[in-house]
Write a structure and sequence with these properties.
single chain; 149 residues; 3 helices; 8 strands; 19% helix
């Protein structure tokens, strides 16, 4: 890891933990647990992750230790939450259709002794997808930043 990236990770790790749902565009299904070796940018905004539904697949990540860096970002409206290196991502569901979007739920494994977050069902995810589809288009500042390619 470069000195600049190591400095970023060190600074981000000092921020409060973000616990909640975040999104990242994904054209693949995660089939086994995966430990991150670099920071992974995610967003609280489904429209941002899909670049206004330009892509048809996402990972809905249940963050347990991500860091909300939106207040420090040049584009705070993106709602960026970074997953730090060493995060263990565990597939909770397979990739499947929810309201015309291919969705897979992934859990960021919490630290030992930490309560597991509730896994949203397809009805809850569907409501989030419908709400995002009817929302206002977002400006895409960095194409591909949140996984869309």
């Amino acid at each position: 890891m470069s000195d600049g990236m190591a400095g970023f990770v060190e600074a981000a790790s000092r921020l409060p933990r973000f616990v909640g749902m975040v999104w990242r565009a994904a054209g693949f299904e995660l089939t086994s647990p995966f430990t991150t070796d670099a920071p992974i940018p995610t967003t609280r905004n489904l429209r941002v992750a899909t670049e206004n539904f330009r892509v048809d697949g996402v990972h809905l990540l249940l963050s347990t230790a991500g860091r909300d860096i939106a207040p420090l970002s040049a584009h705070a409206s993106e709602g960026e939450v970074v997953l730090l290196p060493g995060a263990l991502l565990v597939p909770v569901t397979g990739r499947h259709d929810v309201e015309g979007l291919r969705v897979q739920v992934i859990l960021e494994q919490p630290a030992p002794g930490t309560e597991l977050p509730a896994v949203p069902g397809d009805d809850e995810i569907g409501a989030l997808v419908r709400a995002a589809r009817t929302g206002v288009a977002v400006e895409v500042h960095q194409p591909g930043r949140f996984g869309a390619a």
